[in-house]
Amino acid sequence: MLNRYPLWKYLLILVVLLAGLIYSLPNLFPEDPAVQISSERGDATIDERQLDRIRQSLDEAGIEITDAEREANRVLIRLDNADDQIKARDRIAELLGSDYVVALNLAESTPEWLQSLSASPMTLGLDLRGGVHFLLEVDMEAALTQRLEVNASAMREQLRDERIRYRDTQIEGRTVSMAFANAEDRDEARRLIGREFPEFTYESEGDDRGARLVMTMNDQAVDELQDYAINQNLTTLRNRVNELGVAEPLVQRQGPDRIVVELPGVQDTVAAKRIVGATANLEFRLEARPDTPNNETEAFPFRNNESRRADLMRDVIITGDSVSNANHSFDENGRPQVNIDLDGTGGTLMNRATRTNIGRNMAVLFIEHKTRETTRMVDGEEVVERDPYTERGIISLATIQSALGNSFRITGLDSPTEAAELALLLRSGSLAAPIYFAQERTIGPSLGAENIERGVLSVQIGLLLVVLFMLARYKVFGIFANVALALNLTLLVAAMSMLGATLTLPGIAGIVLTLGMAVDANVLIFERIREELRTGLSVQQAIHAGYERAFTSIVDANITTLLVALILFSIGTGPVKGFAVTLSLGILTSLFTALLVTRAMVNLCYGGKPIKKLWI
Q1: Taking every annotated instance into account, which residue ranges of this chain make up the domain SecD export protein N-terminal TM (predicted)?
Q2: pLDDT per residue over 410-420, tens digit each?
């Protein structure tokens, strides 16, 4: 029988529409403006008495609190008005002092029954939701120094293997210099080292006990090192941002030594800076024996007890660069630990070092590059000066019980939060050079709210004009098209929410374009039905022929547009990708509603019935 669907097809359409309705609902529950409180190291220690003081202080300031929640490592205070966020943050920070970090946040308000179905609202981009913008500066001098230290360590190991005596090693600028007992040892060292390190130029100085070998890295090697440092930092920062779960982040190079990082939806700048800007790395070193010469050892304090120190060998077994994977857990005593997997080279070096040193202590040295900023007046203007410094501390000193391989664990960490952050940093890779925050901005939710309001208004106006046109042009069939249009918008929102796609202002433009394209298919079908009626076909035959004969044209037109959207997504960045994603999903939902949903409604109203006249 013409214009009748089997029951299973009606049920399939109903299930898809019901799922679309459910997964689009979370977007009706906007995020609440909130203030987040955490300790400096990430462990919230706010007790009920302090929380009551905060409530009282905000109440005295006329700031209305809707809820206060305790979570795993923070306290979240939801506010009634976004305009009160900054005032509440400043008041709480003044009340609690410097021991706590108080930051702006946006708290999800999706009902629990929707969360149990894994339903969540669409992710909004930086232009709609707000977030943080960082401009980072890469310390190229530190990158050069780190590379020279690694090279110097390798040179010393090579000389020891060949039993060539040296006295000390000095690093200054781009130069490494080594002192030798006599000129013969120096010349032999020059021959060996020069073969392995062609990127240096070599110069011999002095004779006998004053013999020195001066090695200077050439310009080409320095340029390559700086390019490597910036590219490695870009990769590491992207990995860290991905670990944070930020949707549609922007991490890109700006100029010769700067990197721009934009994190949509992140308002807790302190937490973001702690992860993004962390320059922590690890070094694994053997503890020095009592008879080890002083020029081959270094003394370091323990991170959790600075009064306790240990002498370690200058030579490094491996660094955090050799870590291929890391995750945090707890040991048999419930203390936090980090489980580490090494790459092939790192595992070989670790096995070689531990196999011959069973019974000796091995230390895990935590290294963090930081900077102190001071402001002084120069010619009546404030000038910010950065004083970089490095903190090194031992987090673990354990006896080697047996030869280690590619997998082992690190203990001695202060808290689960510290273990989780260390695992994240090791997993995402270490920075090739320290980075400093040259600029940071927080884009507030008020800007996002204004953009969203304008975007929604444009969608509403476009939807209204399309609805009026379809009603005036196609009467009852216009009603079918308008219902399908509303369902199409619902399915599009649901699809973007389920896939975690990010909505930006260009994405809203894609939605407006989708609304126009969605009715295009219905226009083709309805006009075809009109033509078939004019040729003398019956109502049922005209409806059937209209859908069947317009099918090919509709699919061809939408596939070409979909191909363009896919190309935009593959070669575009940022806003262009947002537009392409919205357009692609909109094409798929439009095909479904135009070819199946409207056909189902027409079939239910006219299928199998003796209709003499069609209102179209």
Answers
A1: 2-104
A2: 776 767 777 77
How many alpha carbons lie under 13 Å from residue 93 in its C-beta half-sphere?
A: 14
What interhelical angle do 7-24 and 598-606 show, nearest 10?
130
Q: What angle do CA 385, 386, 392 make, to 5 degrees?
A: 155
Residue-wise pLDDT for 38-49, tens only, equals 765 545 467 788
CATH 3.30.565.10 applies to domain 32-107: no
Mean pLDDT of the chain: 82
CA-CA distances (angstroms) from residue 477 to 482, 598, 613? 9, 9, 13
The pLDDT of residue 161:
83
CATH of domain 140-221: 3.30.1240.20
Please report the pLDDT score of residue 73 as a whole number: 65
Please give the model's pTM, rounded to 2 decimal places: 0.60
pLDDT of residue 428: 67
CATH of domain 7-26+447-606: 1.20.1640.10
Residues 6+ apart with CB under 8 A from 390: 367, 368, 369, 370
Q: How far is CA 147 from the centre of its chain?
A: 28
Q: What is the CATH number of domain 279-412?
A: 3.30.1360.200
In one-letter notation, the amino acid at residue 94 is: E
